[in-house]
UniProtKB/TrEMBL annotation:
It holds the Pfam family Hydrolase. InterPro entries: HAD-like_hydrolase_sf, HAD-like_sf, HAD-SF_hydro_IA, HAD_sf, PGP-like_dom2. Signal peptide: none annotated. GO terms for molecular function: phosphoglycolate phosphatase activity. GO terms for biological process: DNA repair. It comes from Cryptobacterium curtum (strain ATCC 700683 / DSM 15641 / CCUG 43107 / 12-3). This is Haloacid dehalogenase superfamily protein, subfamily IA, variant 3 with third motif having DD or ED.
Length: 224
């Protein structure tokens, strides 16, 4: 740990959604397997990492290159078949998510979501859990056309909150996102969910200011 998550010194927090706020990684793994079953074989590790970071239409274009769907729009239809019902009817918050976001907003710290998921999923999942309107803004890479691998999406999020970069924190379960946040000048919290997004707990910890396994841990240990 190289920085302390002290609410009194934080001017804004950028949250990922899937695997950070919402317990949806198993649903996404099932959806990816569903897509691959409609194609010509598994994606390369490089392409799999890319589809998890890119705006959803660009991800659909990669899936289509593997023979999935008649065209990228058909890939999006297949994804909706696999995921939209989950976000509307099943998606639950991960432990500590509601409490941490509530503590921050009560303290006057603005919060933003930055996610690669399309807005229809984000709105459905966060609204189902009465959290959507808590955020200053929910940003989908699909709508802004910027990947989570790019620093500028985090600059955009900080600007939305009128938050100085040096006092802005980012919370994400994906190693590539933590690295991009760090490159953008943010402090970072890596929340480990699985090796598929983090490579390993140790790899995520090495890239993050703070690394945890649950938002409960961050709330209990690193707030004042």
């Amino acid at each position: 740990m190289t920085a302390s998550f002290d609410i009194d010194r934080i001017s804004g927090v950028i949250f990922d959604c899937d695997g950070t706020l919402i317990d949806s990684m198993d649903a996404w793994n099932r959806a990816e397997a569903y897509l691959i079953s409609h194609g010509q074989g598994p994606l390369s590790p490089e392409d799999m990492e890319a589809v998890r970071a890119l705006p959803i239409l660009q991800a659909a274009q990669i899936f289509h290159r593997y023979g999935i769907g008649k065209d990228p729009d058909d890939v999006l239809t297949l994804l909706d078949e696999a995921l939209l019902g989950f976000y509307r009817n099943e998606a639950c918050l991960l432990p500590g998510a509601r409490e941490l976001v509530g503590t921050l907003t009560t303290a006057g710290v603005p919060c933003v979501v930055v996610s690669s998921s399309p807005m229809r999923y984000l709105h459905a999942g966060l609204s189902r859990n009465d959290l959507f309107d808590t955020f200053v803004k929910v940003i989908s890479t699909d709508e802004v056309g910027i990947s989570k691998q790019e620093s500028r999406i985090y600059h955009l999020a900080a600007d939305v909150m009128s938050s100085d970069l040096e006092t802005t924190w980012g919370v994400d379960d994906a190693l590539y996102a933590i690295r991009a946040m760090r490159d953008a000048g943010l402090h970072t919290v890596g929340i480990y969910s699985c090796d598929e997004t983090a490579e390993s707990f140790d790899a995520l910890a090495a890239a993050s200011d703070i690394c945890i396994r649950s938002l409960d841990e961050l709330l209990q240990v690193h707030t004042s």
